[in-house]
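Sat 14:20. Reprocessing the chain from the morning session after the first attempt stalled halfway. Input below, unchanged.
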Amino acid sequence: MAGSTASGLGTPDAGYRRRARFYDVEYRTTEDHGYLRSLVTDRVRSILEIPSGSGRNADWLIASGRRVVCADLEPGMVDQVRARIEKAGAPERVTAVQADMRELDLPERFDLILVPQEAFQLLHEPGDAERALPRLANHLRPGGTILLDLYTFDSDGSQEGKRTGDASPPPDYFDPRLAEGRVVTEWRRPVPPTGWLERARSQHGEGNRMRIVYDYRFGEGDRELDRWTSSIRMRRYTADGIAGLAARSGLRIRRIAHDYDGTPWVPGAARMVTHLCAASEEEER
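Finished this time. Tokens:
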């Protein structure tokens, strides 16, 4: 996802810059793709994704036929998205730009703004989210939607989850059952043409934030060639907390889902896939 600050969210640390090379290897989940694609209705003609990372969503966004802007703070990520756009032959319709969500100032507005999988929560410093959400609101066209995919970093205690046996999907880097501070090796994956990348992590609750520490090893064959550590801090939200932040930004909650099937959110559900619209909008369009 990001370094100690985040893609599209502030000045990235050295660990995040190093991760740009391996981002496609590390962050490749597609479990939210169906849900995100369902938001691209006939009414949606333009889309902003921030942060875009190295382009996890770029291929299907390009294929959507819409005007698309992919934004990220890290130049290495932006370069990779631009390469995808060039390969797809879509530079007239799709662009990648370097941008900070807290200072976002693009010359256009959008029907759909995607802030995917916990990315908004990387704005953990006091005042950061309060600066960023009004910026996003300023880039929203009338009748448009801002999608914030949030996670509480708690166990899913929802009655819906208990009834169906389906908990809200957690991030792939967090396990509510994992003991505080315990280091676990998650995976070792191939890095073309002949390398491998290994990631271990630990998680640490810090009041209204969750800190994830990553330890990386990169090598070829039996040789370790490099190792480094990077961390992220995530701001925790409640439904009331995000509703208050939205109201102060000229927005309101249109609806919240607790999974990528669109199941309506219920109190206690750990995931909050939140749809925001302008506060002046009287009804869903």
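Residues 75-88 form the longest helix (14 residues).
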